[in-house]
Amino acid sequence: MRYPVLSWGLSLFLVAVGLSGCEKGSCEGVVCMNGGTCRNGRCRCPVGFEGSRCEIKLTDQWIGQYQGEDRCIISGIIPPYSVSIQASPSYADLIEIERFANLTCEGAPVKVQAQVQSGTTAQIPRQSLCNLRFVMEGRATYNTSQRSIFIEYKIHDRQNNVQDSCSATLYKR
After folding, report:
1. Backbone angles phi, psi at 16, to 5 degrees
2. Tens digit of pLDDT for each residue in 116-166?
3. What is the residue-averaged pLDDT of the chain?
4. Strand 104-105 vs strand 49-50: parallel, antiparallel, or unpaired?
5. Domain residues of the chain, as ranges?
6. How far is 141 from 147, CA to CA, in rounded Å?
7. Distance of CA 163 to the CA centre of its chain
8. Which of 31, 51, 53, 98 is most exposed, with minimal Cβ within 10 Å?
9. C-alpha distances in angstroms, 64 versus 35, 84, 122, 130?
10. CATH code for residues 26-57
């Protein structure tokens, strides 16, 4: 009869030792920002944030006023123009590029959306602009030392039936 009690006591002891061997409190004192969660002592950041505490918003360095210069295979050189980049009000990882490629639609500047994938790269997903007149897609790289953005993009002007491949450099003012 003593064996079941001894077995139960030994089991309880092993469970207690096993639990104390876990990394108890590995997230104790770890503060994750912007909705990040701690797991095994490290912050797991939500989309649009990075850093050891999720303190860096990926879009921050992209935001600002720029001077743009584009070169296209068919259209040639697009005269310099002003560009404004803002954070999307809806998504932490999206930016809106206003007046990109100096495009307008019925007198209003066209906005192109880009998804920031890291502090230095963004993807311009395929999107239709200006009542389906333009279709555009591309990718962008942010140069932190020069505070500039290099963009390679393809654009299809459906009204004039022109498809073009272009590159743009945006210089932060």
Report:
1. -65, -45
2. 998 899 999 999 999 999 999 999 999 999 999 999 999 999 999 999 999
3. 88
4. unpaired
5. 26-57, 60-172
6. 11
7. 27
8. 31
9. 25, 6, 15, 23
10. 2.10.25
Which residues lie closer than 8 Å to 143 by C-beta, 6 or more apart? 120, 149, 150
Radius of gyration of the chain (CA): 26
Give the Cα separation of 38 and 43 in Å (integer): 4
- Provide the sign of the torsion angle of the four alpha carbons 125, 139, 105, 97, taken in this order: positive
Token pair of 11, please? Answer: 């089991």
3-state secondary structure 113-173: EEEECCCCEEEEEEEEECCCCEEEEEEEEEECCCCEEEEEEEEEECCCCEEEEEEEEEEEC
Q: How many residues does the chain have?
A: 173
